[in-house]
Amino acid sequence: MCQKLSLKGWIRVSPRGTIYGQIQGEKNSVDEMALWLRLQGSPGARIDSCQFKNWKVIDSCDFRNFSVRY
């Protein structure tokens, strides 16, 4: 989904199953991704709660692509 929306950043799954990360890109794409994460998520995911923190507007992306960190 991040590639489809041309988003940049990263995610990491904690041992407890919580997802952490940063998403950067055009505002409408970030908003669409947040809605997708809140309501659907990746195939096989179970979403009990979804919280987004530290929203801010930036002039340029800090990341060149999107990755999953381990």
From TrEMBL:
InterPro entries: Acylphosphatase, Acylphosphatase-like_dom, Acylphosphatase-like_dom_sf
One MF term in the entry's GO annotations: acylphosphatase activity
Pfam families given in the database record: Acylphosphatase
Stretches assigned to the Acylphosphatase-like domain: 1-70
Family membership noted in the UniProt record: Belongs to the acylphosphatase family.
Name of this protein: Acylphosphatase-like domain-containing protein
Lineage of origin: Eukaryota, Metazoa, Ecdysozoa, Arthropoda, Chelicerata
